Task: structure prediction
Amino acid sequence: MQSGTDFDAVVVGAGFAGIYALYRLRELGLSVQGLEAAEDVGGTWYWNRYPGARCDVESLSYSYSFSRELESEWLWTERYASQAEILRYLQHVVARFQLRPLIRFDTRLAEATLEASGARWQLRTTAGDLLTARFLVMATGCLSEPRLPAIPGLEEFRGKLYQTSRWPHEPVDFTGQRVAVIGTGSSGIQCIPRIASQAQHLTVFQRTPNFSVPAHNAPLDPLARQAVMDSYPQFRRTLRESATSLMADEPLPAAMELSAQEREQRYRAAWEEGGIRLLFCVSDTVVSKPANDTLAAFVRERIKDIVKDPAVAERLLPRDYPLGTKRLCVDTDYFATYNRPNVTLVDLRSTPLVRATPHGLSTSGADFPVDSIVFATGFDAMTGALLAIDIRGRGGRRLADEWSEGPRAYLGLAAAGFPNLFMITGPGSPSVLSNMVISIEQHVDFIADLVAAMRTRGAQSVEAQAAAQEAWVAHVAEAASQTLFPQANSWYMGANIPGKPRVFLPYVGGVGPYRQKCQAVAAAGYEGFEVR
Ligand code: FAD
Ligand code: NAP
Result:
């Protein structure tokens, strides 16, 4: 660990974002300190160790592109990397670039206060340690602040409690147990088949059925992998410049321009290929309700094909929001799991969860004795980890107050009144709608280039201008309003957290266009920023 308490930059978080930020800022010659609440690096891939945890962006694109040597020496083994493999990868990156000595583990930032000079931050950890930094880089994650529902009586439950996002490091053996899983988002959908194959009985408590597509995960064919790796720079460039950052842009037909038969063929091909490509096999899934309806109906038919009991299938059919407006899930044998004799699906819409008892869970319809309860109930997304820190900017303004009606950030990167503070994949940037490693690298590069430009100019502080911020926030909202996203009670809309403002949090205008906007801002001398 480094000594000293005053740094050019402090980076909070040591997941994909924090690791790369440490690397880039150190390359600039800055004194830099990382703070990480966990006892090791990895972020998402450190915390979410539940059975079945896996990436749903293909491993050849869900990895750093900043080092050609790193790219060529790391061999991904599967189409979609497992949590364990991604964690090993991040540990390798940290070792390879000697970043570990820069990080203070088991250290949570509690408070950040701007000094009167307006150009340095005073930082206090939960242990009471004090540090100062000119630049404060929030790499605290979009999906890192877990959320547990308040269930009356839970403290009386005598069995074991688990949370997907805080999974124990040693394997959990559910053999012979009666297990409950609450939640059927991406995390629930990944762990349910794995727990079902082990437990004596699994009861799934579902509030909202989800759309899910088969992953068709498989070992990576070494020849196919080599073909991509031979052309990695081009492959990466194509993804960075594309709208989705998941696949190359290609001209796509609008769903309703196709005949019913052509649509069916297209949807079926995407379903067979597997993964979130299904969302992007026609041009208008998230903007046209009639188009969306055709794809949603197609997926409902697939669920009915897989699930043998028609009554169970009916309960699994998502009907009250457009496909893709809650994060599309990617699964391995999720729907087929409901054909197992040891699995029960409880529909909390018709029989709500009432309380926990010492021996299990009770709904308005029945009691369910269980030995273990697994919470797969999600996160306070995008703003949760930031607002968990008491951040006070110019004139003592609290970020939490500034954002009481929804986050306000210029480009999702910086907030007016909070100079020298940057957010990586903050609200108002493509972030969670993208391949996040691509968005992370783009933000870190933007920040590092800005810091380098400031040094050249002899500047001490940089701050988003209020007018530029308001224009960007309005643009983010306008872009969302042209889509179907606001129609769902999703975490994208803050709807999963009681009292959270209902605002569409990420920027839906496309990863490539967003990158161009950031490049134009930089080329114009950091337009919209006050550089002092
Ligand atoms: P994180 O990995 O969340 O790291 C943030 C770190 O900051 C954490 O380690 C946390 O402990 C630390 N931290 C937070 N607050 C503080 C504080 N106050 N003080 C100190 N430390 C703090 N994205 C994709 O693109 N594709 C996927 O397939 C995909 N799968 C996912 C699967 C799961 C289970 C989850 C939860 C998310 C997934 N994501 C996926 C999103 C994923 O979060 C990002 O891809 C990426 O890992 C985020 O990296 P990060 O460094 O920005 O944040
Ligand atoms: P999530 O999508 O928010 O799902 C949480 C689930 O818990 C939902 O089904 C929700 O129901 C349910 N729930 C919440 N509170 C409840 C309550 N009080 N009673 C009953 N049910 C309740 O969270 P997540 O599954 O952890 O996923 C979050 C995000 O992380 C994903 O969208 C994705 O971006 C990322 N992720 C990706 C992968 C991957 O495949 N690569 C895996 C895991 C996570 P409602 O829908 O009714 O609110």
